[in-house]
Specification:
Blueprint lengths: L3 E7 L3 E7 L3 E5 L4 H11 L2 E6 L5 H4 L2 H7 L5 E3 L10 E2 L5 E4 L4 E7 L8 E5 L2 E5 L2 E2 L2 E2 L7 H12 L6 E4 L4 H11 L4 H15 L7 E2 H7 L8 H11 L6 H13 L2
Parallel strand pairs: 3-4, 4-5, 5-6, 10-13
Antiparallel strand pairs: 1-2, 2-3, 7-8, 8-9, 9-10, 11-12, 13-14
Length: 256
C-alpha cells in the first residue's frame, strides 16, 4: 500500500505530520490529540505508532489522550526519561522500521533547540521537528550555537532531494529575516513570491527540501559573502569563521 504524508494542523502554526496508508497511520509530534483523533475518525484510520522529536509540550502534549484511544501502540522518541510515555528510546544511527507502511528510518541526534532533539530520516523524507525550518532554524533553548551548527550540517549532508517536514509554519516570518541578512539572494526573492501565494491560499509551504534550503536559508549560508558582510555590520565586528557567523546570525534573529 502506498504511503502519503498529510499535515494535521494544531495550535496556531504546528503541523502534526501524519504518515498514512488506506487503513493505518503514524503521527509525528502530536502536541494536541484532538485534531489527530478527528482525522483518524474522518478517514477511518487506526493509529499504529507515535514518533517524538523532542520534549516540548507542543510536540508531546497529545500523547496521553492518543494512548487512551489507541492503547499499547509504540511511542518512539529520544533518550529523555522525562518523556515517560516513550516505549522505544532512540539514539544516533539507530534504525526504526514501520513494517505496516514498508518504511525505514535512521535516527539522527541533532541537539541545539533542545539537548534531546532527534530527527527521523528515510526514503519518504526528513522529520526534523524544530531544528530546521524553511528559511530558518530553531531557537537555542538548551544547546549552544556550535551544537546547532553541527546539527544543521548533519541534515544538509543528506541528499538534495530529501523532503523536509518541519513542525511549524514559520516560513514567511523566516523569509522576512532572511531578506535582512541576504537581500540580493534571487532564490530567496523567488521563494518569497511562491511562499506568499501558498499562504494566501492557506496552503502549507511545507515540505521543503534540502536543495531549496541550501539556496534560501540564511542559517545554512554562513559562507555567503553578502550574508557575512551584513552580519558583520550588524554586530560591528569582523567574523572569522562560519560558526561565528552562525552564532551572530542566530542572535540577530532572536532580536529581530
Amino acid at each position: 500500500m502506498s504511503v502519503s504524508v498529510f499535515p494535521i494542523e494544531a495550535f496556531n502554526d504546528n503541523y502534526i505530520w501524519c504518515l498514512r496508508n488506506q487503513t493505518h497511520c503514524v503521527v509525528v509530534d502530536p502536541g494536541d490529540a484532538a485534531p489527530v483523533l478527528a482525522y483518524c475518525k474522518d478517514n477511518q484510520l487506526t493509529l499504529s505508532a507515535i514518533l517524538i522529536t523532542h520534549h516540548h509540550w507542543d510536540h508531546t502534549g497529545g500523547i496521553d489522550a492518543l494512548l487512551v484511544s489507541f492503547p499499547d501502540i509504540p511511542v518512539y522518541g529520544p533518550q529523555n526519561k522525562n518523556i515517560n510515555q516513550i516505549t522505544v528510546r532512540l539514539s544516533q544511527d539507530d534504525n526504526l522500521e514501520l513494517p505496516q507502511f514498508d518504511l525505514k528510518f535512521s535516527v539522527l541526534e541533532i541537539p541545539g533547540h533542545t539537548l534531546d532533539h532527534i530527527a527521523y530520516y528515510g526514503d519518504i523524507g526528513l522529520f526534523c521537528g524544530d531544528t530546521l525550518f524553511s528559511a530558518g532554524c530553531g531557537r537555542l533553548f538548551e544547546g549552544t550555537p556550535q551544537q546547532m551548527f553541527t546539527s544543521l550540517a548533519k541534515l544538509t549532508a543528506l541528499p538534495a532531494d530529501t523532503a523536509v517536514y518541519c513542525a511549524h509554519e514559520y516560513t514567511m516570518a523566516n523569509i522576512a529575516f532572511a531578506e535582512a541578512a541576504e537581500p540580493n539572494n534571487q532564490a530567496l526573492i523567488d521563494y518569497k513570491h511562491w511562499a506568499g501565494k501558498q499562504r494566501e491560499k492557506n496552503i502549507p509551504t511545507l515540505p521543503s527540501n534540502i536543495h531549496r534550503e541550501l539556496e534560501v536559508n540564511p542559517f545554512l549560508r554562513c559562507n555567503s559573502r553578502e550574508l557575512v558582510k551584513n552580519v558583520s555590520q550588524n554586530i560591528g565586528a569582523t567574523l572569522i569563521s562560519d560558526q561565528a557567523t552562525f552564532a551572530s546570525l542566530r542572535n540577530w534573529k532572536d532580536n529581530f
